[in-house]
Amino acid sequence: MSNVVGNQELTARWQNALMNNYGTPRLPIVRGEGTKLWDADGKEYLDFVGGIAVNALGHAHPVVVEAVSRQIASLGHVSNLFVAEPPVALAERLLQLFGRDGKVYFCNSGAEANEGAFKIGRLTGRTHMVATEGGFHGRTMGALALTGQPGKREPFLPLPGDVTHVPYGDAQALAAAVTDETALVIIEPVQGENGAVVPPAGYLKAARAITASTGALLVLDEVQTGVGRTGHWFEYQAHEGVLPDVVTLAKGLGGGLPLGATVAFGRAAELLQPGHHGTTFGGNPVACAAGLAVLDTIENEGLLQNVKRQSEKLRDGIEGLGHELIDFVRGAGLLLGIVLTEPLAPQVQQAAQDAGLLVNAPAPDVVRLMPPLNIGDDEVDAFLRALPGVLDAGAADGDGRSGE
Ligand code: PMP
């Protein structure tokens, strides 16, 4: 039952009934349309968080609404004893976008997609894994074992597996850590939760060469970068000579519905055998219908091009402000980090919210932007107009919050 009367009441009810796993208080949101969100008091926001890269088409996109409505009215779910058409069609479509033969395992989240990759790694018969410092792969125990953020790991040690974390972007460190016993190397093509960190040119290619020479699988976590976010269907496709063994997807793929995928190629696609893995909702027809609607819309509306265009416009516009709090802008496509000259990102986030603009602060000195892929000139202009005032106000008190 939804019985919202305002921000205060919804926040109080949230505090009573839900576990506080991210920090308090959170902004109560009751409605979304396109790039706009409304809180329970009726205040309007321009959404540059986009569900942390989930809302690829913004909120309530008519094509997604139509696809989901149609699917749930005809077949909402069947058990894994049966096969429905939407997961088959979505897997075929994904493989077509990858341009390679492979196999897809559907699940419900990014963490789960990485659990699938973890199991595929273990099925090689090797146990050692290499991941990156600052990397984020999810909160379930296997995904957390791969995550390179100590504060998130510590309460849960010992974590499964035998994982070595190496500095991100350092090919020499990677080469030194990978041995003939290494099952897999997992890398985000751009580190999202760490603040839109882009590795040096040639890093992914080096990772491919290193893993190929020792027989380790190269797993690319494209949960945040995939499905058009960076202006390519998958970010690795922007890097010459990089063909991963496994790619994990989630977030934007479901257009707002819970949908993850572990996509494997070559020998990695043959390792998972009957009895090894599974989940009730994996391949749910409604989630997969949403996924197909997202992919179709990205293609039909030329959104990869739009991402590149609006990304440039944002980067140039932000750096062109010459504001003293802005150091530089990094990231790829519409996964951007404004690196500040001072650790005031939580304050900037709060000031932005007060001004009706939603951004996110994944690090003390990084303001992250992940607007919908179909964002237009007007919204980018509105953002750029508001930003100087928001940065000025950012020095004022405010408590930041993070999210995934
Ligand atoms: N991998 C990456 C790169 C992510 O950014 C995230 C979420 N921020 C995850 C995995 C985990 O996804 P989920 O929250 O859907 O489990």
Automatic annotation (TrEMBL):
HAMAP family: ArgD_aminotrans_3. The keyword Cytoplasm applies. Binds 1 pyridoxal phosphate per subunit. May also have succinyldiaminopimelate aminotransferase activity, thus carrying out the corresponding step in lysine biosynthesis. Homodimer. Gene3D superfamilies: Aspartate Aminotransferase, domain 1 (3.90.1150.10), Type I PLP-dependent aspartate aminotransferase-like (Major domain) (3.40.640.10). Its main location: cytoplasm. It catalyses: N(2)-acetyl-L-ornithine + 2-oxoglutarate = N-acetyl-L-glutamate 5-semialdehyde + L-glutamate. N(2)-acetyl-L-ornithine binds at R139, T279. It holds the Pfam family Aminotran_3. NCBIfam families: argD, PRK01278.1, PRK03244.1. PANTHER family: ACETYLORNITHINE AMINOTRANSFERASE, MITOCHONDRIAL (PTHR11986:SF79), AMINOTRANSFERASE CLASS III (PTHR11986). GO terms for molecular function: identical protein binding; N2-acetyl-L-ornithine:2-oxoglutarate 5-aminotransferase activity; pyridoxal phosphate binding. Its cofactor is pyridoxal 5'-phosphate. This is Acetylornithine aminotransferase. The modification N6-(pyridoxal phosphate)lysine is found at K251. The gene is argD. Belongs to the class-III pyridoxal-phosphate-dependent aminotransferase family. ArgD subfamily. InterPro entries: AcOrn/SuccOrn_fam, Aminotrans_3, Aminotrans_3_PPA_site, Class-III_PLP-dep_AT, PyrdxlP-dep_Trfase, PyrdxlP-dep_Trfase_major, PyrdxlP-dep_Trfase_small. It is found in: Cytoplasm.
